[in-house]
């Protein structure tokens, strides 16, 4: 039973841990398909690169419909478990199955294989929304305190880092196999392993948040869609934060889609995907306390600018990988990882602030609608990273293949891989710095004293 809290709440440590473990879902469902799905289709199912990009992108468009719906439903839910937790349980019971089916690999190739993967990925996106939208809405309702929300969310980021490391390193290791480029059976084993991890983590979050404080508005917003969207449209902090997240995650998703190609064709070994991912997510585990302090010193907007600049600097430096080799690539991606850790923490903390301020101003529970829209727009827009990269590969003359019929890629395709991994994401992330300056929600809006970490 979620207990109400009358004033600013310091979230209990047990609840922080219970909430944080749910981020295994967030990290895994974003990382594994983002890292492997495009490569799986082009190199194992003989799907043309442009069509594989469409398959990765198309189901995300569905998020624009399902995410706000789930958010609205959870806002209006009344149960002994609170408004959000029933939806966490629904997602836990459906997402692992749908995720496994994406990589189940029936005996199909080309267009039929693309249709199968697309349908299963659509089901995965639906099940993911059932869990993720209510889950992301919860921090803005757990505490009134501006800095306590950042402290709470650093725990989530630690779990995201651990989950991303596990999924980003373990999944490629299982899928590609030691010393091999992988088989369809190895991809099936990978999918089953990750599905089990998902199920355990999502159930853990459902039970772990049973005693979470509820400081948000007591009633769900019963207004019409038009009234709710009109109010959201006038929320400038929400609008600019959504734009910022879209741009930043477009760069991230493009780098994820390009990573196995970068490892295979630039560094010369698909196994390098694992080590590159390790140095990318390692800083999430180690730098959270640092980013919390930076946010308190420079405010969240200033911390976001610093984080994006680090991200962009590392990505730019990675362009020189053909000159300096694999060690240089790993060092530059480590810098990217430090910036990425800050970008992620500030995004989630800013969203929690927007939710809390909206509830305080309106007296209505709209965290689900706000989170649903933010997640849908951000996810849908960022999914174009894989599509853009797929188009770049197709234009460059990249040749799709199957494991038993390897091909040698033309030099133009190898160059396109480097551009898609470094140049284009760098330009995108630097643009996000300018967008950050438009975000105006700062501590005076929420002037409560900071809670202890």
Characterization of this structure:
The chain contains 17 helices and 2 strands. It has helices at residues 13-21, 23-44, 49-76, 85-102, 110-137, 139-142, 146-176, 184-208, 225-233, 236-266, 272-286, 288-317, 321-324, 326-362, 367-382, 384-396, 411-436, and strands at residues 3-4, 213-214. Strands 1-2 form a two-stranded parallel ribbon. α2 (23-44) packs antiparallel against α5, α11 packs across α14 and α12 packs across α14. 58% of the residues are buried. Mean pLDDT is 82; it is low at 1-8 and 444-453.
What topology emerges from the helices and strands here?
Layout: E1 3-4, H1 13-21, H2 23-44, H3 49-76, H4 85-102, H5 110-137, H6 139-142, H7 146-176, H8 184-208, E2 213-214, H9 225-233, H10 236-266, H11 272-286, H12 288-317, H13 321-324, H14 326-362, H15 367-382, H16 384-396, H17 411-436
Parallel strand pairs: 1-2
Helix pairs in contact: 1-7, 1-8, 2-3, 2-5, 2-7, 2-8, 2-10, 3-5, 3-15, 3-16, 4-5, 4-8, 5-15, 7-8, 7-11, 7-12, 7-14, 10-11, 10-14, 10-15, 10-16, 10-17, 11-14, 12-14, 12-17, 16-17
Along the chain, the helix and strand elements come as EHHHHHHHHEHHHHHHHHH
Identify the strand order in the major beta sheet: 1-2
Helix segment count? Answer: 17
Percent of residues in β-strands: under 5%
- Rg of Cα set: 21 Å
Q: Sheet with the most strands?
A: 2 strands, parallel
Fraction in helix: over 70%
Give me the count of strands.
2
Give the termini distance in whole angstroms: 25 Å
Outline, from the CA principal axes?
globular
Protein name: MFS transporter
Transmembrane segments: 21-41, 47-66, 87-105, 111-131, 152-175, 187-207, 237-259, 271-291, 303-321, 327-346, 367-393, 413-437
Keywords: Membrane, Transmembrane, Transmembrane helix
Organism: Nonomuraea maheshkhaliensis
